[in-house]
## 1
Amino acid sequence: MHNFTVPVALKAWIDHVVRVRRTFSVTPEGKLGALRDRPVFIAVSSGGRFSGERTHQPDFLTPYLRAILGTIGLHDLTFFSVDGSALSPDALAAARNKADREMQRFFLGFALNSTTVLQQAV
Ligand SMILES: Cc1cc2nc3c(=O)[nH]c(=O)nc-3n(C[C@H](O)[C@H](O)[C@H](O)COP(=O)(O)O)c2cc1C
């Protein structure tokens, strides 16, 4: 997170990828994404906290990524965060451990579900 939103490098990538008649089209009902939806995993690192009760800053990053990736057809987003990296070494370690646990739990379930889907397909 940079200044409450995405860092400039990611914004530059978005501006190259999100292009009319390339990755979305304009219809009377609004913008229509050209990409097939698929799981997208987003890891967010931030110096302060940007969610939960002890938050003292706005989060334009999460809603922005939901809106812009949704524009090109990507709706199945999962966010992982290491927030509070600048608060203290202990806070950073705790945030890293929490994110590690969340990712391990999530991807274990994800792999099991994928295996089940594959088994059902054959
Ligand atoms: C230019 C800049 C702006 C930042 N803005 C925020 C911010 O708005 N909120 C926040 O929690 N952390 C902010 N940070 C801290 C980063 O989110 C933090 O260092 C994070 O761990 C990853 O930053 P990195 O891009 O330097 O690796 C900012 C850091 C930089 C360099």
## 2
Amino acid sequence: MKIAILFGQFEGYDEQPNAESDAAKPKRKRKKKKTDVEAIADSLRELGHETTTFAIDGRPQTLVRLARSDADLFFNLIESYNGDDTMEMHFAAYLDLIGKRYTGSGPQGSYLAMDKSIAKTIVRYHGLFTPYSAVIDKGRVEHAQDIQFPVIVKPAAEDASKGIDAGSVVSSIKDLFERISYIHDEFDSPALIEEYIEGREIYAAVIGNDPPEALPLVELDLSQLPKGTPKIASYDVKFDESTDAYKKTKSAVARDLDEDVVAEIQRVAVTAVRALKLRDYARIDLRLGANNRVYLIEANPNPWLDPIAEFAMAAKESGLSYTEMIDRIVKAALARRK
Ligand SMILES: Nc1ncnc2c1ncn2[C@@H]1O[C@H](COP(=O)(O)OP(=O)(O)O)[C@@H](O)[C@H]1O
Ligand SMILES: [Mg+2]
């Protein structure tokens, strides 16, 4: 089968050491030379597919060329269009319009997950716990629950920990208002204020559709962060290799959780994937609060598939090789009605 890997590449982006790779975002903990695009390409070839890579660079001509491509399936790694993270859903919608088959979530799932406040409302309807929250847009309260300090303030629809740093967790009205203004000014986005959940940070990878299957859990250990800084996966923790925050945190398979806690987290993850209409593969970010209550923090459609990323870590623990994991994603995409 002919498979083309779609990856982002746009002007002004220079943080990626290898221009061939998914240039849309700086990626966590890159040490090895193989990028996610290269690793996926190698696996697709190993599986016997005729494989090409296709850079999406933000030019209209490229979209025309994409419409004319004769690939049977697109492995869609586009999380951002021309530097705009909110366009992930538009890109998937374009693939639908031109009648192409692709891996991962469609525009519906991409939208529901990206708008964190909508995602929270939906999963709450399905009986899951997610921190109490409020949304403030330029002085106007869009919605507010009865929330207690400390709270975390974040952009309502961003990802990759943009706008999340040591100042995000606040315990006073003064700091809260300052942080809301910062989010408005810096991201031109409503601010999502959430009750801060103290507890272990767990990632649940989910693969397949019929039914979606939760893989073994991965934990990001934040316990070694310097005293006085909040224990959160800030931008530095995820991407800035020069910081202590980056060096002192690491993800690993969580092997010490009680069986019933694991089962509950996996149930929550699969429920979220279904409720938010995510497809093929997804990663659900959670916190394990007091009394082992499982809080959904965020759902990620099309999470990073680098061999060293949490998703691949979970797949490996379940007994899947990297290539088998890629095969499962391809097969899931092909087995769907659309
Ligand atoms: N309500 C919360 N309570 C505790 N920590 C949180 C909360 N919301 C976010 N965090 C921390 O901030 C990190 C980034 O938040 P998240 O909503 O996942 O944003 P992003 O989309 O940028 O990944 C999380 O991984 C977690 O460490
Ligand atoms: Mg997250």
